[in-house]
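Why run this: before we spend reagent on co-expression, it is cheaper to look at a predicted model of the complex and decide which construct boundaries make sense. The entries below are exactly what would go into the expression plan.
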Amino acid sequence: MREKVKQVLTENYPEIDFESSAELVDDGILDSLTMVGIISALSMEFGVVLPYEDIVPENFNSIDAMVELLEKFM
Amino acid sequence: MTYNSLPFVAFFACFAALYLVMPGIRLRQAVILLGSLAFYLFAGSPHALIMIAAVSAVVYAASRAIDRVYAGYESEKEGLTPKEAAALFAGYKKRGRKILVPALLLIAGSLVYVKTARLLGFTQVKSIPDLLSFRTYLVPLGISYYTFSSVGYLLDIYWKKAKCERNWLRLLLCMTFFPHIVQGPISRYDRLLKQLDRLPGFSYERVCFGLQRMLWGYFKKIAVADRIALFTSTVFADIESYAGMEILIAVMLCAVELYADFSGCMDIVLGAAQLMGITLEENFKQPFFSRSAAEFWRRWHITLGAWFKDYIYMPIAMSPRFMKTSVNLRKKHGNRAGQIFSAAVPLAVVWLLTGLWHGTGPDYIVWGCYWGVIIILGTILAPEFKKLAERLRIDTESFGWRLFQMTRTFALFCIGRMLTVTGSLTGFAALVHGLFRNPKLWVLFNGSLYKHGLNQKNFYVVLFGILLIWTADMLQARIRIRENLAAQPIVLRWLVYYAAVLLVLVFGKYGSAFNASDFIYGGF
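The model came back. C-alpha cells follow.
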C-alpha cells in the first residue's frame, strides 16, 4: 500500500521529495493546490471518497499519514 | 475613534491599566468584554451594537443547535469502523445543514445587503426606529471581518473541526474584541476562545513587547503612510496636471503607503492583543520580498487568503461532484488536465469573491479578475516557465534573478493598486494615459516634485521611513528583533525606546493643520 501511494505521488508530482519531511504541509512543501491534486489522484487510484472533515494538514504531512487515512476508508 | 487617534490612546491606556491589575481570568475576560463593547459604542454606534449583538445571537443559537444534533452521532458511532462512522456522520450532517444554511444566509446576507444597499440608493440608518424602516441600511463597524469570522466558526462547527462555545457572552467578546474588529485580522473564534481560558497575569516582558509593536505600528502609519498620502492624494486628485514621472512615483508610493498603513495597523492591533496575553494571527510576512504573485498573496493579508482557502477553495475542490469531474478529466486527458481543472476553477471563484469582498464596484471586480488570471496562469504554466528558465540557462537562485522576480511582483501589485486607487475604471485609464503622455524625467532634478503636498525635507523623511521598514522586514526574516533588543544592556535598550518614541513624535503627521487619515482597510 505504502509503495503504491508513493508511486502515485511521485508520478503526479516528480519535483517533490515526499520522504524529505514528516511535516510536508506544515513545512510548506505541500500547498493547498498540491493537496487538492494529491487527493484527486489518490481518490482515482484507490476509489475512495475522503470526507472533507478529514482533509486536515495532519493527514497529509507524510506518506505514512496519507496511507493511514486511505486505509481508514477502504 | 480610530486606532491612530488621541481618544483611542487615552482609552487604551485606561483599559490596559485596569486590565493588568485584574486578578483572575474571569475578571480579565469581563474587562475585555466591557472594553470591547465601550469601544464599539464610541467607534461605531448604538444601532451597530444592536446589529452585532443580533448576529452573535444567531451564530450562538445555530452553533448550539448543530452541536446538539451531533451529540447523537457521538453516542452512536461507538464500535463502528471509520468508514461506517463517516457514513453515519453524513446523515447527521444533513440534519446539521438544515440549521447551518439558514444561519449562513442570514449572516452573509446582512453583509451582501450592506454592500449593495448603497448602490441601490437606500438611506443610511440614523436612529433605532430606522432599523425597521424599508429601504434603509446600516454599516456596522467591522462587518466584513466579523461576518467572515462568524461564517468560518459556524462551518468549523458543522465540519466538527471546532468545539462549540456554550457561553454567548464569550462568543460576543470574540466578535467585538476591540483590537481586531476594525480591520482584522480575520480571527478564528475557536482559537481565540481557547486563549480566553488562559489569559495570563501581568508580565513586564509581554507588556513591553506589545507596546513596542504598537509604537512601530504608529510609526508606519503616522510618520510614513499618512505622510505619503499627502503626495499621492494631491496627484491622484488631478491626474491631468501631472507629468508621467510624477504619476509613476505616486503609483509606487501609494503601494508602499497601503503596506505601511495596513501592516502598521496590524502592528498596533497585534501589539495591543499581545499586551493582554492574546496572540492574534499575523497578517503580513514581508510581502514585497515575494518572488511570485501567488507567494505575494500568501504573505499579504494572510488571514483573508487563509479564510478563502479553508472555506471556499477547499470545499469547492473537495466536493464530490467536483472531485468526480477532476478524476474523469485525469482518466480521459491525463494528470495535467485534472491538475489544471482542480486549480483553475476554485481559484477563479476565490478571486472573483475576493474582488467583491473589497468592493462591489466594477474596479474591484476587474481587480479580482486581474489577480485571478495572473495566479491561475502562473499556476498552470509553472512547468513551462521552469523548462524555459532551464533552456535559457537562468540561475533561478541567483541574487539578480530573485531581485528581478521581486521587482516584477511589486510592479504587478502597483498595476493592481492603479485599478482601484482612483475609485473608478475611468480613473485607471487616466492614470495609464498620464503615465505615458508626458514623462518629463527632469522633474526628478528640478525640484518641481516637491511642490505637490510634500516638500523636499518631507520626501527625505518618507525615504528614511521606507528604508527603516525595509530594514526591519529584512531583519525580521532572519532574527527576532524584540527578543534581541531585550537582551541588550539597559542603557542601550532605553536609548532605542526613547529614539522610537521621538521618531513618532517628531516625524508623525498630526495637529490641527493635518487631518489624520482613517486606516485604508477600515473602509472594507
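Chain B touches chain A at residues 82-83, 86, 89-90, 159-161, 298, 309, 313-315, 317-318, 320, 323, 326-327, 330-331, 335, 338-339, 342-343, 346, 379 (CB under 8 Å). The two ends of chain B are 16 Å apart (CA to CA). Bring this page to Monday's planning discussion.
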